[in-house]
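Homework-ish question, so no full write-ups if that breaks the rules, but can someone show me the predicted structure for this set?
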Amino acid sequence: MLTEGQVVVHESLGDEEQRLRRLVLKGPIARTAHAGQFVAIQVQDSSISSFDPLLRRPISIAGISSERDEITLLYRIQGRGTEILARAKCGERLSVMGPLGKGFSLPEKGELWLVAGGIGIFPLYPLAQSALAQGLTVRLFWGGENKSFLESAGLSSWKALGIPLHLSTLDGSLGQTGLVTEQAQELLKKSSASGGQIRAATCGPKKMMQAATELFKNYKVSVEVSLEERMGCAVGACLGCVCTLVDEAGVLIHRKVCQDGPVFRGEEVVWNESC
Amino acid sequence: MSPVNLSTQFAGIKLRNPILTCSGTYGFGEEYVAYCPLEALGGITLKGITPLPRLGNPVPRLAETPAGLLNAVGLENPGLEEFLKSYLPKVRKLPTAAIANISGFSLEDYVLLARALQKDSGLAALEVNISCPNVKHGGMHFGTDPQSAQEVIAAVKAVTDLPVIAKLSPNVTDIVGMARAVQLGGADALSLINTLLGMHIDINQQRPVLANTFGGLSGPAIRPVAVRMVWQVFQAVDLPIIGMGGITTWQDAVEFMLAGATAVSIGTGNFVNPLVPLEILQGIQDYCEKRGLASVHDLVGLAHRA
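A: Not a homework solution, just the prediction itself:
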């Protein structure tokens, strides 16, 4: 749906040098949104209408409160679009399309392992909440640049969930030094749970998701991945954001990240395919 | 005051109003159903099809530019057979006129497609894309050489009973020469303009943003070029024109009609605001009322009087 979301909170998140923002919008999107879906938000300085930047920005949904009709978007200022979005003030109304795309699925029982790289953590929080509400066992593997990043990007909220957290940083300032997938691998080696009892979901840099997918495949754990691609229409009309998958017959096919995804089964994604 | 007559008729195409959507920006009509009531549109132009399925170009396919968008989708489409089987039955049920768009790599490709699409397909017209900039040896060859353009339109006209619209490329020195050529080929109407060839380089990575290197530029950035071409062709060629190229507000649409467009088509503007076709229609209607015009058709070419 196309709606206007009223800004109820718009604040800096954690350490200012991380350039992270928390934007809470009031509107009907929360009623039908699921973890892993996204919105396409118009980024315009409301004081003067302009077509530069032209396109809406796709941002994953990082919090859903259907009782309060609120969704939370967490984003990093990293370009003209997000710089302009960051100027939106409380009370302002932003044009929002959503909820868009197909989100994560939840197993009926067992363990759900979440693997996040950097700001790929954001869409996983509502997934963890839903999984816990359904009585699943959840654990998080999260890698980031350093301690300041992890703390700014919501570490305390994750701690509040009371689930096992396996943290890693590139500089070793918090958790283990190294890659997030290394920690997952160590635990898989030790784990008594068989692949059939574990499901995984991952979001982050493409190389990290690829490594996670290959790792889980070795342990027969099925994994869902959330892909990212430059989007035009965000509703499946323009074919700007396709990804390459391999179908059951082994044939390469295209799917639209905006409409068929952004969440796909890791094993069907063709990571190195450029067509 | 009596209400403004919005309906329009040209080249054997009857539309409830002059607002269309551009090929490649509106899928096969289903994608925008949840966002814009199709019954309010004059019609939609379907995603371009080729004889065989195409996967199109690698990603990145899109690059945003100042008030514009570069795309190099590369004619990804399900191919004729799948279109007829899986898409056309749904298209026929859409509550608005549907114009098919065809692309080819040879004269035979265009003939094969045109032969398969007739009035009894439930379509309102056939738009012949002789202007895709994103495919090597693709449609644009036919769109930049007047002789080839005339031949392909004549060949299409010979095998379909649908009105034939030639979609012209702006990537030519003489747009009027191209318009005259397709008129000689028997075109019933013109779509002006397709995208302008452009590129964008990522200065951090020091390489082109688009995997295809070049792409077609659309959006408000190209509007003045499109208006100029509509103006020139309107003066020189007696064929109805569907104006397109960066239309994002009702004022843009009025500008195209004053320059000589009988209908207007919205492309990239849908991505900005899916309800923009309705807002444009309302704006045109209000404009006509204020100016005491009985019909939207009265706007066509009005700026040429001076």
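Now go work out the reasoning yourself. Hint: The two ends of chain B are 27 Å apart (CA to CA).
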